[in-house]
Amino acid sequence: AAVAGVAGAGAIAGAPFLRTALTNANLGVVSKVAAADAGPFTVHFWAPMSKWMISGASFFDLHRPTDQISLPQYTALTFTGLFFSRYALLVAPINYTLCSVNIALFGSSAWHLGRKIKADYIDDKQDPSNKPE
Fold it and tell me: What InterPro entries has UniProt attached to this entry (predicted)?
């Protein structure tokens, strides 16, 4: 843990120097990405990258049984993806990575939400075996 702490502190302390070196090296795309306001040397880059892990987990589980899908949770995730997709384009700096991850979150959550609503409210009403005797 101490080694990881020292390595992390060194990375944080050395990041401004590395960013300047990469920006001034004229390495094409690498220099442009390093110099970007929402690039890898800012929190604007890493927060959406970690959120991709959450959204990715939802994509890997697209066929989850509907009895394991929470209606309130996926409603919240769907609307979070919808609202923050727009928000990512309004903040400065404009964060296209945040926008893309929120579009993905919206899509995967809406898929699960639609399946849950269909299973609980549409298919149940059409199934004659669910009628009370």
Answer: MPC (IPR005336)
